[in-house]
Amino acid sequence: MSTELYSPSKRDTFFSRGYSNFSSDIDSKYIREDFEFVLNGKNVAGSAYITYCDAYHRFELLQVDNISKSSILLNGAWDDSSRHSITFYSPANYAQWGLPVNVSLQWKYLFDSSGSFTKEIWLADEKSATLSSVYRYTNSLNKINTGVVVYHQYSIPITGGSIFCRTIGSGEPIVLVNGGPGWSSDHIIPLAEMLSRNNFQVIIFDQRGTGESRLCSLDTNSITWNQMTADIEAVRNYFKIKSWIVVGHSLGAMLAMNYCTTHPETISKMILLAPGGMNLDFLEEYPASLNSRLSLENLQQIKFWMAKPVSGQGLASMNIIYNTLPALIYNDSLANSLMDNIDTTTWRMQTASLVWDNLTKVGFDISKRLMHFHRPVLIVQGCQDALGNLLPVEIKKVLPNARIRFINNAAHILWADQPTEIEKVLSDFLK
Predict the structure, then answer these.
(1) Structure pTM?
(2) Residue 417: enclosing H or E segment and its boundaries?
(3) Distance CA 284, CA 279 (A)
(4) pLDDT digits over 122-142, tens only?
(5) DSSP letter, residue 187
(6) Is the C or the N end of the chain the one with fewer CB within 10 Å?
(7) Contact (Cβ atoms closer than 8 angstroms) between residue 48 and residue 62
């Protein structure tokens, strides 16, 4: 997309200049802007995502930059002429952006009927606002046509609600159970697409209390481990699948293992990617191991956003995820690209809390029951995963027909760190 940048009259002490590249995804779920500009001598780069929120019937803009490491939610319509300010966590962030504490940085997007739009950057204090720079985007956005990625969406009824489900590809069915808890299935889409390229029909679903799945109530009665396991079986019955391959990641691997103890006859093969434990013993060391991989700034931001009230947890969850990513990936530079499949609805903190509470309440431990599952199992673990390398070894000892593959230069989100090797390892096992 071509841009025209000009700088109108402005204060001598404040200026910005730069460029942006825009693109849109296949179903116009979001518009991504990769930006870079100079503000008072400070180089700022990052990504912004303009998204339409069906729940609130509004457009939202989320930004992640390389200075404040913040996520900023800006709300409005395409023709919204109001300005929206960035809210920084601490006074130190103002200095990092080259701004006095009493001056705010504001954005305004103006869209016309042809799809072209103007982006304005304003600098404001308590008395007035000054237009700093304007970016004019003169071409309409075009959808990216991959020619192969086609999703089908379903709403599967369950007692007290529904499960939102998507399928991609065709062939032998695979159900992909994402990690969390409290996470929707959006973040695992790249893995679903990877598996579908190998002639499989991949099924992903939002676990109860997450994403687009719906429940009449969200409490200790509606969020239980047994119900989450039963939901997997509800998906299988909905599609009338006799036998399928079950793939679980992280806590989703724990859920997959629990499912294989209740419905072993439905599974032809099982893959456990960076699995959590057969019981909750791993939680004694995992939080400390995870935190050791984060910077002091990451930890401070997580603490700050964890303290936010429930009303602001959508934005808080985005910031917590962004500041936790360095512990989940081997290559830190992947953090911004991973945000492509993460938004304010990705993680519901309340659901996560309810899941952990229930696992503790029931004394989750399936180590003895797993011994009766005899189907082929592949356990894949990143050598640099904060979970360590002992968990997969312990799981392999219990499962009679399991094998392990360790992947070097990979942490918890394996398919992001080593996509080529992961695709080969999985396709070899699934042949």
Answers:
(1) 0.68
(2) helix 414-417
(3) 11
(4) 767 777 777 766 665 544 333
(5) G
(6) C
(7) yes
